[in-house]
Amino acid sequence: MALLVQKFGGTSVGSIERIEAVAERVIKARQQGHQIVVVVSAMAGETNRLLGLAKQVDEVPTRRELDVLLSTGEQVTIALLAMALNKRGFNATSLTADQVTIRTDNAFNNASIIQVETENLTTLLDQGNIVVVAGFQGRDSENNITTLGRGGSDTTAVAIAGALDADECQIFTDVDGVYTTDPRLVPEARRLDVVHFDDMTSMARNGAKVLQLQSVEYAQQHRVPLRVLSSFEEGEGTLVSFDSSAVSDIVGIAIKNQQTLLETDMPLSDLQAQLNLFGITGWCSVVNAGSTQFVTANDDLARLKLVLDKKMHQVAAVSTLSVVGDDMSGKADVICAELAEAGVLVRQNKRSSRCLTLLINEEDHQLAVNIVHKRFVVEPESLDNRPLLAVS
Amino acid sequence: MALLVQKFGGTSVGSIERIEAVAERVIKARQQGHQIVVVVSAMAGETNRLLGLAKQVDEVPTRRELDVLLSTGEQVTIALLAMALNKRGFNATSLTADQVTIRTDNAFNNASIIQVETENLTTLLDQGNIVVVAGFQGRDSENNITTLGRGGSDTTAVAIAGALDADECQIFTDVDGVYTTDPRLVPEARRLDVVHFDDMTSMARNGAKVLQLQSVEYAQQHRVPLRVLSSFEEGEGTLVSFDSSAVSDIVGIAIKNQQTLLETDMPLSDLQAQLNLFGITGWCSVVNAGSTQFVTANDDLARLKLVLDKKMHQVAAVSTLSVVGDDMSGKADVICAELAEAGVLVRQNKRSSRCLTLLINEEDHQLAVNIVHKRFVVEPESLDNRPLLAVS
After folding, report:
1. How far lies B321's CA from each of A43, A313, B368, in Å?
2. What CDD domains does this protein map onto (chains A, B) (predicted)?
3. Each residue of B306-335: pLDDT tens digit?
């Protein structure tokens, strides 16, 4: 008998039919003798519906009250899922964040979990209940309702798994595991059976969307094994593990789109000071005397314009490809040359011990990721043997 | 400076525009220097929408989980109203039942309030906040979410007013006060400026819908003055008072439709024992040897059929008119005679010190209430002077 925390996101509980399918899925694990805590998100679309109501009242709604509003989304789901489980003859009890209790800081709309109390969870589990917990929400030290920000249900699941010392935290999603790269772009992409936590963190930080960076880091910190599974299909998914045997030569290629390359005549040190002040992260480099280029997420562009006003101009819409795996140093030149041969301009590259990041024009990202995936993942041996192309 | 508890029902907060109108209304009272606690219901239609979701999962949903689901309705409203107040520059803070705390028994779907804690309310009021509280909900002693059943927001408002020793509990609704009878049926019906608690209880018990019986009784028990006001129009509304000067000769006529007159050959004592067993209230009387008639709400008919099976038959669809006021004993015969003259059969009548109830066929209720209202309310002096008609 294992203690499992299973998390189902908004798409997985997006309709009554889907909630019933989740109930069946949970029951299957229960019937194998496991103790189960289920963490759920709001039904797909519900958070946006609530946000829409708030925006009608105030374009910039009170942050405290926005959390009071948004937290109802998950409360609806826990009630419906517990009903569906009870109807099928399995004792289930729903708990809101305050009933658990999940204690957070008081950063409304973007709170961090400080502590998960285990007493009520343990009592209910020991009584044979499936416990259904509202994700994404908590209470601060003054008992105000908080939310963890979008994607926070993963963090809730990981935090509960950590507090309960669960055997596994299973993240059910709309893909059946972690892939070597985005399978919508690269048909040859394949599912990984296992991936090491360090590499998963690197993939998530560089754009892999299957797991939120924050929850991967939280899980690593609290030593909670993670498993990514499909809500829609059977399968073993991908285990994110602490085991050193999980470290593989090449893990995969993370893609981050919707970024912009900017240029400014501001000195690098001044630019970085400004960016730090406004909490904007960017990839900076001096391109020549008196000119600095940097890359930033499109989401930060409006704020950047406030900071830099007319002192910057946009160079290009760009993407980054990040190859995660061993011994990148010797391979960068080879792949850059091959991309150039295919007409893909690699504007810059950055290397660290287990990550090589290439900056390319966004329009090239699909072509580029297919080339890089083929060389690094499908035929890695070809890369080792291939002579360096002569580039002038 | 007074301390006011203002309650707005589902229609009053039925859209963003209506919530904004409620905010303006609340601000007006705040600007007069009063401390305000606002209690709100779910937006009109929301409770039914949530019930619809639950019924899709289970025709008879788990009672505990139904309350988890339904209580989200009021939570949405408190957040939106607090946002609307904050946007207008008035500090407002929303509180759910657990944040107040409102303690109830554990009768899910139909809980009763045991205690309202005042500490958080008082602190927020003293800080100058308008406090916006979710009606209709509470927490039992084990911190489970409960609901008070439909119309429970009135009870929440009254209970908070009682606990805070408020100067007045103001119930805002879609009519501008308590009327002498239903103005949709009787154009001559007029609004009462003041009505005594005993008479209001009698009106509510006999079918007046403007206030829930339970909340009137609760207010009387906790010595909370009530005022019924329109959410949509200005005005003083109707004050429900403990003052003996509020006792008037004739208060009004309550109407209760959707009842059925049944007949059974079961002895009266057996019938009453059966009805008590199933918690069904009925108006019983022996009509002749071996036959008992009784009146019951149509809502209880299905359950009655389980109790009495083939031992009863339906006589007629009936209504009751209840005249609340002084000295009914001498007037019953006169009005029954006049109704007979107009072709309205009065099947039975019941008199108590300040209430005369007439049992009539439902199809006659509009004609009858107009006649009774004219004689008792519009021209009461005509009743005193009119000679008794000769009826054989």
Report:
1. 48, 80, 8
2. AAK_AKii-LysC-BS
3. 777 778 888 999 999 999 998 677 788 888
Measured in angstroms, the CA of B37 and the nearest CA of chain A are apart by 16
Distance, in angstroms, between A148 CA and closest chain B CA?
17
Cβ A201 vs Cβ A217: under 8 Å: yes
pLDDT in tens, B52-111: 999 999 999 999 999 999 999 999 999 999 999 999 999 999 999 999 999 999 999 999
Inform me whether the C-beta atom of residue A109 falls under 8 Å from chain B C-beta atoms: no
Say whether pLDDT at B202 is over 50: yes
**Contact B75/A80, CB-based, under 8 Å?**
no
Sequence ranges of chain B with CATH classification 3.40.1160.10: 3-173
d(CA B251, CA B182): 13
Residues of B in contact with A62 (CB under 8 A): 82-83, 86-87
Q: Which residue has the tokens 């008035």?
A: B90
Residue A390 pLDDT: 44
Packing angle of the helix pair A46-57, A72-87 (nearest 10 deg) = 150
Contact status of A75 with chain B (Cβ, < 8 Å): yes
Q: What is the DSSP string of B121-163?
A: HHHHHHTTPEEEEE-SEEE-TT--EEE--TTHHHHHHHHHHHH
Taking CA–CA distances from B99, the nearest residue in chain A reads: A143
Asked if residues B269 and B388 have their Cβ atoms less than 8 Å apart, the reply is no
- The pLDDT tens digits for A270-326 are 888 888 887 777 777 767 777 888 898 898 888 888 777 778 888 999 999 999 998
Does the structure's ipTM exceed the value 0.90? Answer: no
Classify strands B238-241 and B194-196 as parallel, antiparallel or unpaired.
parallel
Which of A134-138, B45-49, B60-64, B244-248 has the lowest average pLDDT?
Answer: B244-248
Alpha helices in chain B (DSSP H): 16-31, 46-57, 63-70, 72-87, 97-100, 119-126, 152-164, 197-205, 213-221, 268-277, 301-308, 332-341, 365-373, 380-385
- 3-state SS track over chain A: CCEEEEEECCCCCCCHHHHHHHHHHHHHHHHCCCEEEEEECCCCCHHHHHHHHHHHHCCCCCHHHHHHHHCHHHHHHHHHHHHHHHHCCCCEEEECHHHHCEEECCCCCCCCEEEECCHHHHHHHHCCCEEEEECCEEECCCCCEEECCCCHHHHHHHHHHHHHCCCEEEEEECCCCCECCCCCCCCCCCECCEEEHHHHHHHHHCCCCCCCHHHHHHHHHCCCCEEEEECCCCCCCEEEECCHHHCCCEEEEEEEEEEEEEEECCCHHHHHHHHHHCCCCCEEEEEECCEEEEEEEHHHHHHHHHHHHHHEEEEEEEEEEEEEECCCCCCHHHHHHHHHHCCCCEEEEEEECCEEEEEEEHHHHHHHHHHHHHHHHHCHHHHHHCCCCCCC
Chain region(s) in chain B for CATH 3.30.2130.10: 251-385
Mutation choice for A interface testing from B19, B83, B106, B142 by most A CBs within 10 A: B83
Between chains, do B80 and A64 touch, taking CB under 8 Å as contact?
Answer: no
Q: What is the CATH number of domain B251-385?
A: 3.30.2130.10
Does residue B75 contact residue B96 with C-beta atoms inside 8 Å? yes
Cross-strand pairs, B15:
none
Superfamily of domain A3-173: Acetylglutamate kinase-like (3.40.1160.10)
CB contact under 8 A, A72 and B68: no
Mean pLDDT in residue range B254-282: 86
CA B68 to chain A, closest CA, distance in angstroms equals 6
